[in-house]
Amino acid sequence: MDNNQFPVHGAGMGLRRALMGPLSSVSTEQVDFMEVAPENWINVGGRFGKQFRQYTERFPFLCHGLSLSIGSPAPLDFDLLAQIKQFITEHQIRCYSEHLSYCSDSGHLYDLMPIPFTEEAVHYTADRIRQVQDFLGQRIAIENVSYYAAPQQEMAEIDFINAVLKESDCDFLLDINNIYVNSVNHRYDAEQFLQQLPGHRVAYVHMAGHYVEAEDLLVDTHGADIIDPVWALLGKAYALFGVMPTLLERDFNLPPVDELLAEVAQIKTVQAEYSFVTANNAIGA
């Protein structure tokens, strides 16, 4: 995916309902794009519906699903997908993404569970992604997730991700913090992992904070500031794949808006630094 094919550009942030008022005066120079979970906004009317429409008319929007449960043994929820398809059209959503995980079977688990890293799961998950893309009439992006156990593991995480992306021929939502969290929890080299990912498939990037449960156990929470090693890993991603649109995820423990905007500004600073390096390298080539 080259720069002309990215659905958005620059640095963005997730729009949460608690931020609707505080972000009302934010300009498109401060935040280039926004992202929401479609499940939180489908069929929302009244005051919140009007406020949301004001945002989607001002900013480019992406949607990041919570409950499609792409790896679940349960049938795909085509009623939900029909609502998402309408939502995408209604608000001119630039990209729809979901997690490479599952969150339901006979009921909703309210958490992201790891898909077994097996050949069978590759084929099963890729087929379901293709079904979703066919139904929506567009490519979707699948995100690498944090996980805390690897049941029935037959292959490495990186091989599983790459196999699913290749077989389904979908785009990739690159979550930098999830790579860092997993690298600590499962004791692998985060940079080496990053180098093996298909940069040409990246639609956009997620950046977030996490909780330190123990020295060897990090929990992906989206409820803390981004730490320096994760910022450094973002720089490595830009060095490998070029500057990509990057979004700040913050779901709870929300600080004052100025602090959120400072992290978005830091993303812009890293993007500018690597754009400058890329341009100079091109001139010197």
Can you give a write-up of this model?
The protein has helices at about 45-60, 80-90, 120-135, 155-170, 175-185, 190-195, 230-240, 255-285, and strands at about 10-15, 35, 60-65, 95-100, 100-105, 110-115, 140-145, 170-175, 200-205, 210-215, 215-220, 245-250. It is an alpha/beta fold and about 280 residues long. It has a single domain (about 5-285), classed as Divalent-metal-dependent TIM barrel enzymes (TIM Barrel). The strands form 3 sheets. An 8-stranded parallel barrel has the order 1-2-3-4-7-8-9-12. A two-stranded antiparallel ribbon has the order 5-6. A two-stranded antiparallel ribbon has the order 10-11. A hairpin with a 3-residue loop joins strand 5 (about 100-105) and strand 6 (about 110-115). The longest helix has 28 residues, at about 255-285. The radius of gyration is 18 Å and the shape is globular.
Lay out the secondary structure.
Layout: E1 11-14, E2 33-36, H1 46-58, E3 61-64, H2 78-90, E4 96-99, E5 102-104, E6 108-113, H3 119-136, E7 141-143, H4 157-168, E8 171-175, H5 176-185, H6 190-195, E9 202-207, E10 210-214, E11 217-220, H7 228-241, E12 246-248, H8 257-284
Helix pairs in contact: 3-4, 7-8
